[in-house]
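Suppose you are handed a protein chain with no further information: no name, no annotation, nothing but its sequence. What can you learn? This example shows the usual starting point.
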Amino acid sequence: MAIVTMPGTIALDYSIAANVLGDQAGYRVLVCGEPAASAGVQIVPSHDLAAIAEADTVVVPGFEDPHIPPPDHYLDAIARSFDRGATTIGICTGTFALAASGITNRRQVTAHWQYTAQLQELYPDTKVLENVLFVEDGHLLTSAGAGAGIDLCLHLIRSDFGVDAELAAGKSFVAAPARPGAHPQYVDALTPPRSDLAETRYWAMENLSLPITVDQLARRSAMARRTFIRRFREETGMAPMRWLTLQRVLLARRLLEKSDWSIDRIADQSGMGTGANFRALFRKETGSSPSEYRRLHRS
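A reasonable first move is to predict its three-dimensional structure. Written in structure tokens, the prediction is:
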């Protein structure tokens, strides 16, 4: 894995990748490029830019003045790495560098909400998604800044090493498990200072094998259906059934990694019905079949 440093690299975005990914035992992280300074912090690479040619993952942190493309030798190195199949990641304004290299054409990306309009204007052939935490389009992954960068790094760890590795990494940095990429970067209404529905969510997580409905959750919360849905969105950033689906998939991932249960038994335990329904939903959410996921992530 290579983290690219170039003129104007933002220290915060660099440090997120260097610390979250650099602490993961399964990665060997190289810092490649040229020295950079940001907010009084000096970033000194361990290798020159040519070293990214051997990396299976290339991470480009955000950089200052993203409307000005990085030097051509950086863009060429990024494009060559992507073309040979390296997973290529842009954090915050790092997405601008990926776009300038030409690899985002007709692909979906995101960036910090303050920059998405500018990104779309500069690179009209790129499909810029607004107000999402991160986007995965094949082996191209991009995120908003700061906390969303952590989410993307945890998502990568989960994809490469499984749910337990992600949870351990998050615990190390006092971070919750990665929020879904489609989770909004911001909400227009303030989240309530208390979490009135925490008990309801805990009950749902303990009973995922049951056919849980929104009406049932609303009754347990002593709320009208519409009020419950609104409050649930305020507290979690997503609809109740979307949240429930993600919890079912998370449980299924852990069972695939840690148990020898059959696909049908895992489908039943996680509340996803038949084995066929489970396979379809699991592939939709993770990009792989349950059997493929199990082969890749068994301890």
